[in-house]
């Protein structure tokens, strides 16, 4: 008995060799970067030359720096609005695509297309739409609000939200459609018998059964939008002024070009803590909700 | 309405038509506009959405030459394909080793949580120190960035593969073991073939990530000979702003390979992405 157990415990060395090798590489380039970032955040290093420890000075500075606070406010506002918009639109689209429609697969394929297109180029295309097509339309129909380039105004955030919604609805819709397909049609038949239809059916049956898809989409959306970067670089470059500078853009711009390497490292650490906290909080709340509904 | 009364041919036309209108105005229109601009002459831009007076394909050849398309395409394809190859063989084996030995050894259990927890670290958090480190190790070129993609994809891919391997009965390994197969053989002849659906998912997600990535090339690839297609569009932004026709021709040249892949593999891609997200 004992001998058999012992033999079962033996692990072939090749497993150790390959996993260790990958772990060492991962540690050296990913984890070590992360640790170094934390280390730099306690110094005044500029990315080159001499440095010394400054304690918590960088962290204290974050809470007094208008640029950084502005970037956090913009990023939160953007993330909240976009998460809500994307999930509402995707849910509607998914329900529509799941209805008894003609050309189902073709329509689905079209709605998924934006997922394939890199958001940098999508941003460039929409730049042109906001700068030329929309104003031309606004002038032709005498709509004052549309006659200027939205990206040059105080509403530039909405330009970025529109592009983000355009490119992320594809993924979210796909996840919701998959969730809808997994719902047993028997449940609906039972609901029909009980006289539940339309909105009631959606509220009490479809939506609760979509809970797992909802969790995935909310967590991935929030995490992704807190990191918003590409579309801003493509469209406004953080402007006008600094009104659309997100935290990721700020870290890039000031960290590499603004001589704030150490300070932006501290900013990155704060961003990390926020992203982890929000993701865990969401998972907690949404999983509890799933349990309650399940 | 009860299900019995609905005949199979009875479609919901109002929703179908709404969905088609949605596609035409929100998805087709921007791409149609991009195409129209790309095939027009700069003097022919009064009506943006109208068909061109004279078809001007010259924009494409100009953009091709100006952005050095072949070289940028080669760089992007190199990164994508080499990353794909190494990701699929190494990450899947790591996941196999971890899943099968998790119960037997603390080391593998620790490795599992180590890799998974790294998923919480977004790229912009490690961006600054990574660039310093990449310069020290001379990773600021396409080979270096490919290496980094393989390493950085590990958490997500291990997670995906572990989920799939868990559901493969261990009796299969045992049977092969009794026949005298070594771990690498068990993996490549027994396990890897069964993992095909997960491999498809990982392949699609890796492809999309590396082909469309902009941030990592931006911070790592400074030499213009090493640039990727996406990065080149950004670098040429200021030159493009004086000639939109050229710019859009160039954008379409970048979107084209992805569109072709999508047309042929859309079903496969959509299934793969769903499988990846639901795990």
Automatic annotation (TrEMBL), chain A:
Residue span(s) of domain ABC transmembrane type-1 = 72-282
GO annotation, cellular component aspect:
plasma membrane
Q: Which CDD domains match?
A: TM_PBP2
InterPro entries in UniProt = ABC_transporter_permease, MetI-like, MetI-like_sf
Cellular localisation: Cell membrane
UniProt keyword terms in alphabetical order: Cell membrane, Membrane, Transmembrane, Transmembrane helix, Transport
Question: What SUPFAM superfamilies is this protein classified in?
Answer: MetI-like
Report the principal subcellular site.
membrane
Which GO biological process entries does UniProt record here? transmembrane transport
Q: Does the keyword Membrane apply?
A: yes
TM region positions: 14-35, 74-97, 109-130, 155-175, 209-228, 261-283
Q: What membrane topology does the UniProt entry give?
A: Multi-pass membrane protein
The keyword Transmembrane is assigned to this record? yes
Protein family per UniProt: Belongs to the binding-protein-dependent transport system permease family.
Q: What is this protein called?
A: Sugar ABC transporter permease
Tell me the organism's taxonomic lineage. Answer: Bacteria, Bacillati, Bacillota, Clostridia, Lachnospirales
């Amino acid at each position: 008995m004992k001998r058999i157990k012992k033999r079962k415990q033996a692990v072939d060395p090749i497993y150790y060799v390959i996993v260790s090798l990958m772990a060492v590489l991962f540690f050296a380039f990913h984890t070590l970067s992360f640790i170094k970032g934390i280390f730099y955040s306690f110094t005044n290093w500029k990315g080159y030359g001499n440095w010394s420890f400054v304690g918590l000075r960088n962290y204290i500075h974050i809470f007094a720096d208008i640029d950084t606070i502005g970037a956090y406010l913009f990023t939160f506002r953007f993330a909240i609005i976009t998460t809500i918009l994307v999930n509402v639109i995707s849910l509607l689209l998914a329900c529509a695509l799941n209805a008894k429609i003609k050309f189902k697969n073709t329509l689905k394929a079209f709605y998924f297309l934006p997922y394939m297109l890199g958001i940098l180029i999508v941003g460039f295309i929409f730049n042109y739409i906001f700068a030329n097509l929309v104003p031309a339309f606004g002038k032709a129909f005498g709509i004052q609000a549309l006659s200027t380039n939205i990206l040059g105004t105080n509403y530039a955030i909405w330009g970025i939200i529109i592009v983000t919604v355009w490119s992320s609805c594809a993924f979210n819709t796909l996840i919701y459609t998959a969730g809808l397909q997994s719902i047993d049609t028997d449940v609906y038949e039972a609901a029909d018998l009980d006289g539940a239809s339309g909105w009631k059916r959606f509220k009490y049956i479809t939506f609760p059964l979509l809970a797992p898809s909802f969790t995935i989409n909310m967590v991935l959306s929030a995490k992704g939008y807190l990191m918003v970067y590409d579309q801003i670089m493509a469209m406004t470059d953080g402007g006008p002024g600094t009104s659309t500078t997100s935290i990721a853009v700020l870290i890039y711009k000031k960290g590499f070009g603004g001589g704030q390497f150490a300070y932006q490292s501290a900013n990155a650490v704060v961003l990390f803590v926020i992203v982890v906290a929000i993701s865990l909080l969401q998972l907690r709340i949404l999983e509890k909700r799933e349990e309650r509904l399940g | 309405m009860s299900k019995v009364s609905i005949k199979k041919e009875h479609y919901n036309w109002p929703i179908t038509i709404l969905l088609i209108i949605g596609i035409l105005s929100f998805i087709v229109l921007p791409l149609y506009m991009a195409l129209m601009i790309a095939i027009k002459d700069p003097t022919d831009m009064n009506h943006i959405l109208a068909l061109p007076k004279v078809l001007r394909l010259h924009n494409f050849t100009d953009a091709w030459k100006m952005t050095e398309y072949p070289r940028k395409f080669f760089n992007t394809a190199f990164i994508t394909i080499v990353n794909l190859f190494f990701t699929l063989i190494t990450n899947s084996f790591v996941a196999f080793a971890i899943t099968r030995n998790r119960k037997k050894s603390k080391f593998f259990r620790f490795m599992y949580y180590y890799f998974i927890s790294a998923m919480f670290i977004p790229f912009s958090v490690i961006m600054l120190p990574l660039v310093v480190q990449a310069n020290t190790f001379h990773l600021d070129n396409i080979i270096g960035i490919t290496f980094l993609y393989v390493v950085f994809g590990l958490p997500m891919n291990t997670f995906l593969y572990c989920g799939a391997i868990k559901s493969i009965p261990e009796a299969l390994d045992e049977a092969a073991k009794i026949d005298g197969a070594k771990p690498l053989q068990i993996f490549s002849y027994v396990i890897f073939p069964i993992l095909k659906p997960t491999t498809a998912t990982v392949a699609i997600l890796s492809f999309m990530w590396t082909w469309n990535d902009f941030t990592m090339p931006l911070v790592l690839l400074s030499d213009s000979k090493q640039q990727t297609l996406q990065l080149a569009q950004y670098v040429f932004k200021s030159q493009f702003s004086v000639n939109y026709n050229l710019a859009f021709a160039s954008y379409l040249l970048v979107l084209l390979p992805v569109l072709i892949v999508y047309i042929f593999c859309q079903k496969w891609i959509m299934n793969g992405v769903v499988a990846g997200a639901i795990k």
